[in-house]
Amino acid sequence: MNKITWQSPSNIALIKYWGKHGVQLPSNPSLSFTLNECNTITELFWKEGDGNIELLFNGESKERFTARARDYISSIDSYFPNLKKLDLHIDSINNFPHSAGIASSASAMSSLALCLCSMDEEISGKKLSKEEFYRKASEIARLGSGSAARSVYGGFVSWGISDKLAESSDEYASPLPIKVHKSFEDMRDTILIVDQGIKAVSSRAGHKLMSRHPYAKQRFALANKNFRDLLRALQKGDNSNFIRIVEAEALGLHSLMMSSSPGYILLKADTLKIIHRIRAFRELSCTPLCYTLDAGPNVHLLYHDKDSAEVEEFITQELLLYCSDKYRINDHVGNGPIKL
Ligand code: PMV
C-alpha cells in the first residue's frame, strides 16, 4: 500500500466558534492559536480498490470513529474524484485524551485532511502551490470539524468572515494577517485536566442547539465585536483587554450551553475552583494570566513565557490539587502541522 503521514496539532480558541449554518459554515468569526504538544499523527494507506475504509484510533478499531470517518469521506468525495476507486486504511494516534474538551477533533480531522490532500497530489500528479494546498486542507478539515480548519496553520489563526479582515472566509481559515505583538507570540497554555471522561453532550449537538437559541443573535453580534477588539489587543500587546475578552468568551461559551434548550453543564466544581484561584492570584500578584475553556471542564491557563517560573509555582501549589491525577499538559503556541 502507498502511505502518507501528517502530524497535526490541536488549537485553543480565544474567540469561540459556537453555532453554524449551511455546510459547516460558522455563524461568527473565531480566532485561536495552534498548540505545540497536543497532536494527532495520522498515517493514511491507500491502494486501488472499491471505496473500503478502515480506521484504527490509538491502535484500536472503534466503530464510532470508523463510522464518522466513512461519513466524512463520503461527504468530501466531490473534492477527490479518485476516492471511490481506492481502499483506505487510516491509523490515527493521539497523544492527549480525546473527547475531553481539548479539541481533539481539530488535530484528528486536520491531520486526516492534510493526508487526503497529499494523497490526491500524489495520485493526480498535480501539485498545488503551498498557499493553495493549505487553503484546500483547511476547507476539507472544516467539513470534518469546524475548529479543525484552524489547525492546518501555526501561530494565531482566524476562521470566518470579519469586516476587519479583507481576505477572511467562512470556507477556510487563514493565519492572522496582522502583526501580533511579540509578547503574545510565545504565549503559554497549561491545560489543567479536571476530568478526562467523555463529555455528556458533544460539540456537534451543542452547535445544533444554537440554531434555536434565544440569545443566538446577540451572541453572534458580540462574537464579532470581541473578535475586532481582540485583534486590536493582540496587535498592541494590551494585556488587560486580552484578559477581559478571552475570559468573557470562555464564560460566554458555557453560558450559551447552560441557556440552551435543553440546557446542560459541562463545567465541574473543580473547574470553578480553579477559575476563582486564577482570579485571586492575578489580583494579588498582578501577573497577566487568564483562563479559557473549550467545550469541556478542563481549564486552559494562558500566560506569557517570561512569567513561566512564577506561574509554575502557582500551578503546583494551588491548582494541581484540582486536576485529575494531578494531570496537566504544558503547551504553547506552535508552528503547525508537519509532514512526516
Ligand atoms: O470543531 P467543533 O465542531 O468540534 O466545535 C468546537 C467548538 C469549540 O471548540 C467549543 C470552540 C472553537 O472555536 O474551537
Short key terms for the protein model shown above:
4-stranded antiparallel beta sheet; 7-stranded mixed beta sheet; alpha+beta; 340 residues; binds (3R)-3-hydroxy-3-methyl-5-(phosphonooxy)pentanoic acid; 9 helices
Structural description of this entry:
This protein has 340 residues and is of the alpha+beta class. Helix content is 38%, strand content 23%. The protein is built from nine helices and 13 strands. It has helices at residues 63-75, 104-124, 130-144, 182-185, 203-209, 216-236, 239-258, 269-285, 308-319, and strands at 2-15, 20-21, 25-26, 30-48, 53-57, 86-94, 156-159, 173-175, 188-192, 290-293, 299-303, 328-332, 338-339. Strands 1, 4, 5, 6, 7, 8 and 13 form a seven-stranded mixed beta sheet that branches. β2 (20-21) and β3 (25-26) form a beta hairpin. α2 (104-124) packs across α3 and α6 (216-236) runs antiparallel to α7. The mean pLDDT is 95. (3R)-3-hydroxy-3-methyl-5-(phosphonooxy)pentanoic acid binds next to α5.
> Roughly how many Å apart are the termini?
17 Å
Helicity, as a percent range: 25-40%
Q: What's the rounded overall pLDDT mean?
A: 95
Broad shape? globular
Strand tally, please?
13
Rg value: 20 Å
Largest sheet: 7 strands, mixed
Q: Secondary-structure element sequence?
A: EEEEEHEHHEEHEHHHHEEHEE
